[in-house]
From TrEMBL:
Residues 63-403 form the Aminotransferase class I/classII large domain. SUPFAM superfamilies: PLP-dependent transferases. Belongs to the class-II pyridoxal-phosphate-dependent aminotransferase family. Keywords: Aminotransferase, Pyridoxal phosphate, Transferase. Pfam families: Aminotran_1_2 (PF00155). It comes from the Bacteria. This is Aminotransferase class I/II-fold pyridoxal phosphate-dependent enzyme. InterPro entries: Aminotrans_II_pyridoxalP_BS, Aminotransferase_I/II_large, AON_synthase_class-II, PyrdxlP-dep_Trfase, PyrdxlP-dep_Trfase_major, PyrdxlP-dep_Trfase_small. One of its GO terms (molecular function) is transaminase activity. Its cofactor is pyridoxal 5'-phosphate. The keyword tRNA-binding does not apply.
Length: 418
Protein backbone atom coordinates (compact mmCIF):
# COMPACT_ATOMS: atom_id res chain seq x y z
CA UNK A 1 0.00 0.00 0.00
CA UNK A 2 1.97 2.99 -1.27
CA UNK A 3 0.54 6.14 -2.80
CA UNK A 4 -2.99 4.80 -2.38
CA UNK A 5 -2.70 5.51 1.36
CA UNK A 6 -2.61 9.21 0.51
CA UNK A 7 -6.27 9.09 -0.61
CA UNK A 8 -9.57 8.26 1.04
CA UNK A 9 -13.18 7.74 -0.02
CA UNK A 10 -13.72 11.50 0.30
CA UNK A 11 -11.48 12.07 -2.73
CA UNK A 12 -13.92 10.28 -5.04
CA UNK A 13 -17.22 11.71 -3.85
CA UNK A 14 -17.50 13.80 -6.99
CA UNK A 15 -17.12 11.47 -9.95
CA UNK A 16 -15.00 12.21 -13.02
CA UNK A 17 -17.10 9.73 -15.05
CA UNK A 18 -19.42 10.92 -17.82
CA UNK A 19 -21.82 8.09 -17.02
CA UNK A 20 -23.35 7.89 -13.50
CA UNK A 21 -23.51 4.10 -13.91
CA UNK A 22 -19.72 3.92 -14.27
CA UNK A 23 -17.51 4.37 -11.20
CA UNK A 24 -14.71 6.95 -11.37
CA UNK A 25 -11.63 5.47 -13.04
CA UNK A 26 -9.43 6.99 -10.35
CA UNK A 27 -11.46 5.14 -7.71
CA UNK A 28 -11.11 1.83 -9.55
CA UNK A 29 -7.33 2.24 -9.71
CA UNK A 30 -7.13 3.32 -6.08
CA UNK A 31 -9.28 0.40 -4.91
CA UNK A 32 -7.18 -2.09 -6.86
CA UNK A 33 -3.92 -0.69 -5.52
CA UNK A 34 -5.18 -0.80 -1.94
CA UNK A 35 -7.25 -3.98 -2.18
CA UNK A 36 -5.51 -5.62 0.78
CA UNK A 37 -6.63 -2.73 2.98
CA UNK A 38 -10.14 -2.46 1.57
CA UNK A 39 -10.56 -6.18 2.18
CA UNK A 40 -10.63 -5.39 5.90
CA UNK A 41 -14.19 -4.10 5.41
CA UNK A 42 -17.30 -6.28 5.10
CA UNK A 43 -15.91 -9.21 7.09
CA UNK A 44 -18.03 -12.36 7.13
CA UNK A 45 -19.47 -13.35 10.50
CA UNK A 46 -19.34 -17.13 10.72
CA UNK A 47 -22.00 -17.55 13.37
CA UNK A 48 -23.90 -15.58 15.99
CA UNK A 49 -22.54 -12.28 17.29
CA UNK A 50 -20.75 -13.14 20.52
CA UNK A 51 -17.70 -12.05 22.57
CA UNK A 52 -15.70 -14.88 20.97
CA UNK A 53 -16.58 -15.87 17.43
CA UNK A 54 -15.18 -16.74 14.02
CA UNK A 55 -14.93 -14.26 11.17
CA UNK A 56 -13.48 -14.31 7.68
CA UNK A 57 -11.58 -11.39 6.18
CA UNK A 58 -9.90 -11.39 2.79
CA UNK A 59 -10.35 -15.15 2.64
CA UNK A 60 -8.67 -15.68 6.02
CA UNK A 61 -10.67 -17.28 8.83
CA UNK A 62 -9.79 -16.32 12.36
CA UNK A 63 -11.19 -17.11 15.80
CA UNK A 64 -11.39 -13.72 17.47
CA UNK A 65 -12.36 -11.78 20.53
CA UNK A 66 -15.07 -9.51 19.20
CA UNK A 67 -14.74 -5.85 20.24
CA UNK A 68 -16.65 -4.47 17.26
CA UNK A 69 -20.31 -5.47 17.68
CA UNK A 70 -22.88 -3.23 19.40
CA UNK A 71 -24.32 -6.07 21.46
CA UNK A 72 -23.98 -3.92 24.59
CA UNK A 73 -26.10 -6.03 26.95
CA UNK A 74 -25.28 -9.38 25.34
CA UNK A 75 -28.89 -9.93 24.25
CA UNK A 76 -28.12 -11.15 20.70
CA UNK A 77 -28.00 -14.75 21.89
CA UNK A 78 -29.99 -14.49 25.11
CA UNK A 79 -32.12 -17.68 25.36
CA UNK A 80 -35.35 -15.86 26.23
CA UNK A 81 -34.94 -13.39 23.37
CA UNK A 82 -34.18 -16.16 20.88
CA UNK A 83 -37.14 -18.25 22.07
CA UNK A 84 -39.53 -15.29 21.77
CA UNK A 85 -38.39 -14.69 18.20
CA UNK A 86 -38.72 -18.38 17.34
CA UNK A 87 -42.24 -18.57 18.73
CA UNK A 88 -43.30 -15.50 16.73
CA UNK A 89 -41.73 -17.00 13.62
CA UNK A 90 -43.85 -20.10 14.05
CA UNK A 91 -47.01 -18.06 14.68
CA UNK A 92 -46.64 -15.04 12.38
CA UNK A 93 -44.30 -16.29 9.65
CA UNK A 94 -41.26 -14.64 8.15
CA UNK A 95 -42.37 -11.11 7.25
CA UNK A 96 -44.90 -8.35 7.79
CA UNK A 97 -45.55 -8.21 4.03
CA UNK A 98 -46.80 -4.64 4.00
CA UNK A 99 -46.19 -1.08 5.15
CA UNK A 100 -47.42 -0.16 8.64
CA UNK A 101 -50.05 2.21 7.25
CA UNK A 102 -51.65 -0.37 4.98
CA UNK A 103 -51.16 -3.98 6.03
CA UNK A 104 -47.94 -4.60 7.95
CA UNK A 105 -48.83 -3.69 11.53
CA UNK A 106 -49.53 -6.62 13.86
CA UNK A 107 -50.58 -6.76 17.48
CA UNK A 108 -46.91 -7.43 18.24
CA UNK A 109 -45.93 -4.07 16.70
CA UNK A 110 -48.60 -2.21 18.65
CA UNK A 111 -47.52 -3.97 21.82
CA UNK A 112 -43.92 -2.88 21.38
CA UNK A 113 -45.01 0.69 20.66
CA UNK A 114 -47.04 0.80 23.88
CA UNK A 115 -44.28 -0.77 25.94
CA UNK A 116 -41.60 1.63 24.67
CA UNK A 117 -43.80 4.67 25.20
CA UNK A 118 -44.57 3.56 28.75
CA UNK A 119 -40.93 2.72 29.46
CA UNK A 120 -39.80 6.19 28.38
CA UNK A 121 -42.74 8.06 29.90
CA UNK A 122 -44.05 9.29 26.54
CA UNK A 123 -47.50 9.23 24.96
CA UNK A 124 -46.74 7.38 21.74
CA UNK A 125 -44.10 5.57 19.70
CA UNK A 126 -43.35 4.97 16.00
CA UNK A 127 -41.36 1.91 14.88
CA UNK A 128 -38.99 1.89 11.90
CA UNK A 129 -37.49 -1.06 10.04
CA UNK A 130 -34.09 0.67 9.85
CA UNK A 131 -32.23 2.76 12.39
CA UNK A 132 -30.74 5.02 9.74
CA UNK A 133 -34.08 5.43 7.99
CA UNK A 134 -35.76 6.14 11.31
CA UNK A 135 -33.33 8.89 12.27
CA UNK A 136 -33.46 10.38 8.80
CA UNK A 137 -37.23 10.01 8.50
CA UNK A 138 -38.00 11.55 11.87
CA UNK A 139 -36.30 14.80 10.89
CA UNK A 140 -37.71 14.74 7.38
CA UNK A 141 -41.15 14.28 8.91
CA UNK A 142 -41.08 17.24 11.31
CA UNK A 143 -39.06 19.77 9.30
CA UNK A 144 -40.03 21.70 6.17
CA UNK A 145 -38.44 24.17 3.75
CA UNK A 146 -37.81 27.41 5.60
CA UNK A 147 -37.11 25.68 8.93
CA UNK A 148 -33.66 25.68 10.51
CA UNK A 149 -32.13 22.53 12.01
CA UNK A 150 -29.24 23.23 14.37
CA UNK A 151 -27.11 20.12 14.80
CA UNK A 152 -24.13 19.32 16.97
CA UNK A 153 -21.11 19.15 14.66
CA UNK A 154 -20.61 15.45 15.46
CA UNK A 155 -24.20 14.39 14.84
CA UNK A 156 -24.75 11.16 12.90
CA UNK A 157 -25.15 11.22 9.12
CA UNK A 158 -28.76 9.98 9.34
CA UNK A 159 -29.75 13.27 10.99
CA UNK A 160 -27.85 15.31 8.42
CA UNK A 161 -29.51 13.44 5.56
CA UNK A 162 -32.92 13.91 7.20
CA UNK A 163 -32.47 17.67 7.31
CA UNK A 164 -31.35 17.72 3.69
CA UNK A 165 -34.34 15.61 2.67
CA UNK A 166 -36.71 18.04 4.41
CA UNK A 167 -35.06 20.97 2.58
CA UNK A 168 -34.68 22.81 5.89
CA UNK A 169 -31.56 24.90 6.44
CA UNK A 170 -28.75 22.90 8.02
CA UNK A 171 -26.64 24.69 10.65
CA UNK A 172 -23.96 23.16 12.87
CA UNK A 173 -22.78 24.29 16.29
CA UNK A 174 -19.40 23.32 17.75
CA UNK A 175 -19.50 20.00 19.56
CA UNK A 176 -21.06 20.33 23.03
CA UNK A 177 -20.39 24.08 23.02
CA UNK A 178 -23.26 26.12 24.58
CA UNK A 179 -21.84 29.43 23.35
CA UNK A 180 -21.73 28.16 19.77
CA UNK A 181 -25.30 26.86 20.13
CA UNK A 182 -26.43 30.20 21.52
CA UNK A 183 -24.91 32.03 18.55
CA UNK A 184 -26.54 29.65 16.05
CA UNK A 185 -29.93 30.16 17.70
CA UNK A 186 -29.48 33.91 17.80
CA UNK A 187 -28.55 33.98 14.10
CA UNK A 188 -31.63 31.97 13.16
CA UNK A 189 -34.25 33.92 15.07
CA UNK A 190 -37.56 34.27 13.25
CA UNK A 191 -37.59 30.78 11.76
CA UNK A 192 -39.00 27.51 13.06
CA UNK A 193 -36.02 25.80 14.64
CA UNK A 194 -35.01 22.45 16.10
CA UNK A 195 -31.83 21.48 17.98
CA UNK A 196 -30.46 17.96 17.40
CA UNK A 197 -27.93 16.17 19.63
CA UNK A 198 -26.89 12.59 20.37
CA UNK A 199 -26.95 10.76 23.69
CA UNK A 200 -23.58 9.07 23.12
CA UNK A 201 -21.56 10.18 20.11
CA UNK A 202 -20.76 7.09 18.12
CA UNK A 203 -17.16 7.83 17.15
CA UNK A 204 -15.91 9.55 20.31
CA UNK A 205 -17.87 7.84 23.06
CA UNK A 206 -18.74 11.04 24.94
CA UNK A 207 -22.24 12.18 25.87
CA UNK A 208 -24.28 15.24 24.95
CA UNK A 209 -23.61 17.91 27.57
CA UNK A 210 -27.30 18.37 28.31
CA UNK A 211 -26.80 20.33 31.56
CA UNK A 212 -25.13 23.12 29.58
CA UNK A 213 -26.94 22.82 26.24
CA UNK A 214 -30.57 22.53 27.34
CA UNK A 215 -30.71 25.89 29.16
CA UNK A 216 -29.54 27.57 25.95
CA UNK A 217 -32.28 25.92 23.89
CA UNK A 218 -34.85 26.75 26.55
CA UNK A 219 -33.75 30.40 26.64
CA UNK A 220 -34.52 30.63 22.92
CA UNK A 221 -37.73 28.62 23.21
CA UNK A 222 -36.47 25.94 20.82
CA UNK A 223 -37.22 22.22 21.08
CA UNK A 224 -34.61 19.45 21.20
CA UNK A 225 -34.45 16.04 19.51
CA UNK A 226 -31.97 13.54 20.94
CA UNK A 227 -30.63 10.44 19.20
CA UNK A 228 -30.12 7.78 21.89
CA UNK A 229 -28.87 5.04 19.54
CA UNK A 230 -25.82 4.19 21.67
CA UNK A 231 -27.27 5.15 25.06
CA UNK A 232 -30.74 3.57 25.29
CA UNK A 233 -30.84 0.72 27.86
CA UNK A 234 -27.28 1.69 28.84
CA UNK A 235 -27.50 5.11 30.52
CA UNK A 236 -29.82 6.19 33.30
CA UNK A 237 -30.91 4.55 36.53
CA UNK A 238 -33.49 2.50 34.61
CA UNK A 239 -31.79 2.44 31.19
CA UNK A 240 -33.89 5.25 29.72
CA UNK A 241 -30.87 6.89 28.14
CA UNK A 242 -28.81 10.02 28.58
CA UNK A 243 -32.05 11.97 29.03
CA UNK A 244 -32.68 10.04 32.25
CA UNK A 245 -28.99 10.14 33.19
CA UNK A 246 -29.13 13.94 33.32
CA UNK A 247 -32.72 14.17 34.63
CA UNK A 248 -33.81 15.97 31.49
CA UNK A 249 -36.99 14.05 30.61
CA UNK A 250 -39.19 17.15 30.62
CA UNK A 251 -36.79 19.15 28.41
CA UNK A 252 -36.65 16.87 25.37
CA UNK A 253 -39.24 17.14 22.60
CA UNK A 254 -38.49 13.90 20.75
CA UNK A 255 -36.35 10.90 21.67
CA UNK A 256 -35.10 8.61 18.91
CA UNK A 257 -33.16 5.37 19.31
CA UNK A 258 -32.17 2.29 17.35
CA UNK A 259 -32.75 -1.40 18.05
CA UNK A 260 -29.39 -2.52 16.64
CA UNK A 261 -27.27 -1.67 19.68
CA UNK A 262 -28.32 -2.63 23.22
CA UNK A 263 -31.56 -4.24 21.97
CA UNK A 264 -29.44 -6.48 19.68
CA UNK A 265 -32.06 -6.45 16.90
CA UNK A 266 -32.68 -4.11 13.99
CA UNK A 267 -34.75 -1.03 13.27
CA UNK A 268 -35.45 2.05 15.35
CA UNK A 269 -38.15 4.07 17.08
CA UNK A 270 -39.18 7.58 18.03
CA UNK A 271 -41.22 8.50 21.10
CA UNK A 272 -43.00 11.76 21.86
CA UNK A 273 -46.39 13.49 22.10
CA UNK A 274 -49.26 11.50 20.58
CA UNK A 275 -50.60 14.36 18.42
CA UNK A 276 -47.17 15.03 16.89
CA UNK A 277 -46.44 11.37 16.20
CA UNK A 278 -49.88 10.90 14.66
CA UNK A 279 -49.01 13.70 12.25
CA UNK A 280 -45.53 12.31 11.57
CA UNK A 281 -46.82 8.86 10.57
CA UNK A 282 -48.25 10.39 7.40
CA UNK A 283 -45.21 12.49 6.50
CA UNK A 284 -42.32 10.09 7.12
CA UNK A 285 -41.80 8.27 3.85
CA UNK A 286 -39.37 5.86 5.50
CA UNK A 287 -42.32 4.75 7.66
CA UNK A 288 -45.30 4.85 5.34
CA UNK A 289 -43.54 3.46 2.27
CA UNK A 290 -41.39 0.75 3.90
CA UNK A 291 -42.39 -2.72 4.96
CA UNK A 292 -42.89 -3.06 8.70
CA UNK A 293 -40.40 -4.96 10.83
CA UNK A 294 -40.73 -8.76 10.65
CA UNK A 295 -42.92 -10.00 13.53
CA UNK A 296 -40.18 -12.34 14.78
CA UNK A 297 -37.84 -9.36 15.15
CA UNK A 298 -40.52 -7.41 17.02
CA UNK A 299 -41.14 -10.29 19.39
CA UNK A 300 -37.42 -10.53 20.09
CA UNK A 301 -37.28 -6.79 20.76
CA UNK A 302 -40.19 -6.97 23.20
CA UNK A 303 -38.45 -9.72 25.12
CA UNK A 304 -35.13 -7.84 24.99
CA UNK A 305 -36.84 -4.82 26.58
CA UNK A 306 -38.27 -7.04 29.30
CA UNK A 307 -34.97 -8.77 30.05
CA UNK A 308 -32.99 -5.53 30.03
CA UNK A 309 -35.34 -3.75 32.42
CA UNK A 310 -36.37 -6.45 34.90
CA UNK A 311 -33.33 -5.45 37.00
CA UNK A 312 -30.04 -3.56 36.61
CA UNK A 313 -27.73 -6.59 36.46
CA UNK A 314 -26.84 -6.47 32.75
CA UNK A 315 -26.30 -2.72 32.81
CA UNK A 316 -24.16 -2.96 35.95
CA UNK A 317 -22.02 -5.67 34.36
CA UNK A 318 -21.60 -3.56 31.23
CA UNK A 319 -20.42 -0.56 33.27
CA UNK A 320 -18.08 -2.70 35.35
CA UNK A 321 -16.53 -4.06 32.15
CA UNK A 322 -16.32 -0.57 30.67
CA UNK A 323 -14.52 0.85 33.69
CA UNK A 324 -12.14 -2.13 33.76
CA UNK A 325 -11.24 -1.92 30.08
CA UNK A 326 -10.78 1.84 30.10
CA UNK A 327 -8.57 1.75 33.21
CA UNK A 328 -6.35 -1.05 31.89
CA UNK A 329 -6.17 0.46 28.38
CA UNK A 330 -4.94 3.77 29.78
CA UNK A 331 -2.40 1.96 31.95
CA UNK A 332 -0.78 0.34 28.91
CA UNK A 333 -0.65 3.68 27.10
CA UNK A 334 -3.54 3.59 24.63
CA UNK A 335 -5.04 6.93 23.58
CA UNK A 336 -8.79 6.71 24.26
CA UNK A 337 -9.74 10.28 23.40
CA UNK A 338 -12.11 12.08 25.79
CA UNK A 339 -15.11 9.79 26.12
CA UNK A 340 -16.36 7.84 29.13
CA UNK A 341 -18.94 5.42 27.71
CA UNK A 342 -18.91 1.80 26.54
CA UNK A 343 -17.95 3.18 23.10
CA UNK A 344 -14.16 3.41 23.34
CA UNK A 345 -12.09 4.94 20.53
CA UNK A 346 -8.48 3.83 20.23
CA UNK A 347 -6.78 6.72 18.48
CA UNK A 348 -4.21 5.90 15.80
CA UNK A 349 -3.43 9.34 14.40
CA UNK A 350 -3.15 10.25 10.71
CA UNK A 351 -1.14 7.35 9.30
CA UNK A 352 -3.63 5.52 7.08
CA UNK A 353 -1.17 2.79 6.12
CA UNK A 354 -0.53 1.99 9.77
CA UNK A 355 -4.27 1.84 10.48
CA UNK A 356 -4.80 -0.95 7.96
CA UNK A 357 -1.60 -2.79 8.84
CA UNK A 358 -2.77 -2.86 12.44
CA UNK A 359 -6.22 -4.05 11.40
CA UNK A 360 -4.81 -7.06 9.59
CA UNK A 361 -2.35 -7.86 12.36
CA UNK A 362 -5.04 -7.67 15.02
CA UNK A 363 -7.21 -10.01 12.95
CA UNK A 364 -4.44 -12.55 12.64
CA UNK A 365 -3.66 -12.28 16.34
CA UNK A 366 -7.30 -13.01 17.20
CA UNK A 367 -8.84 -9.59 17.85
CA UNK A 368 -11.71 -8.21 15.77
CA UNK A 369 -11.60 -4.42 15.45
CA UNK A 370 -12.79 -2.40 12.47
CA UNK A 371 -10.74 0.48 11.05
CA UNK A 372 -12.44 3.88 11.15
CA UNK A 373 -11.08 6.09 8.39
CA UNK A 374 -11.66 9.57 7.02
CA UNK A 375 -14.23 10.97 6.18
CA UNK A 376 -16.07 9.15 9.01
CA UNK A 377 -13.59 10.83 11.37
CA UNK A 378 -11.09 13.68 10.88
CA UNK A 379 -7.95 12.89 8.87
CA UNK A 380 -5.82 13.26 12.00
CA UNK A 381 -8.23 11.20 14.09
CA UNK A 382 -8.07 7.73 12.50
CA UNK A 383 -9.02 5.07 15.02
CA UNK A 384 -10.46 1.77 16.03
CA UNK A 385 -13.79 1.79 17.86
CA UNK A 386 -14.22 -0.66 20.71
CA UNK A 387 -17.69 -1.76 21.81
CA UNK A 388 -17.64 -3.15 25.34
CA UNK A 389 -20.54 -5.46 26.28
CA UNK A 390 -21.98 -7.13 29.35
CA UNK A 391 -21.23 -10.49 27.74
CA UNK A 392 -17.45 -10.00 27.77
CA UNK A 393 -15.59 -11.79 30.54
CA UNK A 394 -12.51 -10.40 32.24
CA UNK A 395 -10.55 -13.10 30.41
CA UNK A 396 -11.87 -11.75 27.08
CA UNK A 397 -10.88 -8.19 27.98
CA UNK A 398 -7.48 -9.19 29.36
CA UNK A 399 -6.62 -11.10 26.21
CA UNK A 400 -7.79 -8.22 24.03
CA UNK A 401 -5.67 -5.77 26.03
CA UNK A 402 -2.66 -8.06 25.72
CA UNK A 403 -3.00 -8.13 21.93
CA UNK A 404 -3.52 -4.36 21.78
CA UNK A 405 -0.44 -3.69 23.90
CA UNK A 406 1.71 -6.06 21.87
CA UNK A 407 0.49 -4.70 18.53
CA UNK A 408 -0.18 -1.00 18.98
CA UNK A 409 2.09 -0.04 21.88
CA UNK A 410 5.05 -2.31 21.13
CA UNK A 411 4.58 -1.88 17.41
CA UNK A 412 4.70 -5.48 16.26
CA UNK A 413 3.08 -5.18 12.81
CA UNK A 414 2.41 -8.28 10.71
CA UNK A 415 5.07 -8.45 8.01
CA UNK A 416 2.55 -10.08 5.67
CA UNK A 417 0.83 -6.70 5.35
CA UNK A 418 3.97 -5.07 3.94
Amino acid sequence: MGHEAEHSLADFYFSDSDDPLCPPEAFVQWAEAGSWAISMYEPHMLGAVAPRMAIERAGERSDVINLSSYNYLGLATHPEVVEAAQEALRTYGTGACGSPLLSGLSDLHRGLERELAAFLGQEDCILFNSGFAGGMGTLAGVLRKGDVAILDAKTHLCSIDGVKLSRAKLVFFDHNDPDSLDQALTDSEGARRLVVVEGVYSMDGDTADLPRLLPVAEKHGVGVLIDEAHSILVYGAHGRGVVEHYGAEKSIGLQFATFSKAFAGCGGFTVGPRALLHYMRYYINAYGFSCALPPAVVAGLRKALEVATRDNSLRETLWANTRYFREKALQIGLDLGHGSSQVVPIMVGSDRRRLYELTRTLHRRGLFLAPVDYPSVPEDGLRFRVAITAAHTRADLDRALEILEDTIIRGRVDEAAE
